[in-house]
Design a protein that fits this description.
Number of strands: 37
CATH class of the largest domain: Mainly Beta
Distance between the termini: 68 Å
Strand order of the largest sheet: 8-9-12-15-18-23-26-29-32-35-37
CATH architecture of the largest domain: 3 Solenoid
Number of helices: 5
């Protein structure tokens, strides 16, 4: 089944200016209609080449245009139109945005204009919320009392934003995400019964934050859960009460951050990582996927806490060895 294509057409001169690239060869007035994958392109496609290994046994003369770097140039010279970039992956990101028509929601019949913003069918927006201009709220969303959403932000379908949450400008909140819900806080009585602790704080999200689908961000117990400017969060991420995420930090899918932890600026947290509560992680830390962090990290660098994959028989032997490490050390003494 063919993929739907965007009807927009852009010439190479326009594209090069928009994506910080230069035209190495070709016709600046040549127009392309889509960003194509190497497995399926046509004469009006522009393809992205980021590595020489993707150029083997490819006839680039059939492509409309290529976006790449000087390193790949010898292998793609038979392409009629070539754009080069010093940062090709970033240029590719800008290129995909050119052909993304999601932002034209105001012309879709499921949206209605309410003053200076747009709301999809089935959504409930409190009169006590404050929604700025050019905000787009998808279908079946709930925006409670005291919510603030700044200009040019997009809230996708089926998002719930609880009371007193603040979202900055130019943010994107993807479908199914819940922001400002009650945190996981309980006390236990003498009979071992659990009693919920009401969370009376809020969530504050900065500018240019991108949050994936089906994420859960809890409000603070008495203070604020904070997501700073420029943070990007993948799908299925949980951020507990009182957590603070520093600017430009990236968090990959299925990571979980327990309550009252402070994450520094420009950190990268790998998928399926678990970060224990009440920790402090300094700036510029990289945590590799599936790591469990249970101590403070005070020095920038890359941190891991699991073995790489092994044959099951070897893993069982190592597991037994680790379980007996105390006895082995005591014998050496």
């Amino acid at each position: 089944m063919d993929q739907p294509s965007n009807s927009a057409m852009y010439d190479l001169k326009f594209i090069a200016k928009k994506i910080n690239a230069t035209i190495y060869q070709g016709d600046p007035s040549f127009s392309v209609s889509q960003v194509g994958d190497l497995s399926k392109v046509n004469s009006r496609s522009i393809v992205f080449i980021n590595s020489k290994k993707f150029t083997e046994n490819i006839n680039f003369s059939t492509f409309g245009a290529c976006l790449s770097s000087e390193d790949c140039l010898p292998n793609i010279k038979n392409c009629k139109n070539i754009l080069l970039s010093k940062n090709p992956y970033h240029s590719f990101a800008l290129l995909t945005n050119l052909f993304d028509n999601e932002t034209s929601k105001e012309v879709d019949s499921m949206y209605r204009k309410v003053g200076h913003y747009y709301v999809g069918s089935g959504s409930v927006v409190s009169d006590l919320s404050k929604i700025s201009k050019n905000v787009v709220i998808g279908c079946n969303c709930v925006i409670e009392d005291g919510v603030v959403i700044r200009e040019n932000s997009t809230i996708d379908h089926n998002v719930t934003i609880y009371k007193n949450t603040a979202i900055g400008s130019n943010c994107k909140i993807s479908s199914g995400t819940v922001i400002g819900s009650q945190g996981f806080g309980f006390s236990i009585d003498k009979d071992k019964n659990w009693h919920h602790i009401s969370h009376l704080g809020s969530v504050v999200i900065g500018d240019s934050v991108n949050i994936g689908s089906n994420c859960s961000i809890d409000r603070g117990t008495l203070v604020t859960t904070t997501i700073s400017n420029g943070v990007i969060i993948d799908n299925n991420v949980h951020i507990a009460h009182n957590v603070c995420i520093g600017e430009k930090t990236a968090i990959a899918g299925k990571a979980a951050i327990a309550g009252s932890t402070i994450i520094g600026k420009r950190c990268q947290i790998g998928g399926m990582s678990g970060i224990f509560g009440h920790l402090k992680i300094t700036d510029d830390v990289i945590i590799t996927p599936k790591s469990n962090i249970y101590r403070n990290i005070n020095k920038p660098g890359t941190y891991s806490s699991l073995f790489p994959q092994l044959e099951s028989s070897k893993w069982k032997k190592i597991n037994i060895l680790v379980s007996k490490i105390d006895k082995i050390l005591s014998l050496k003494k």
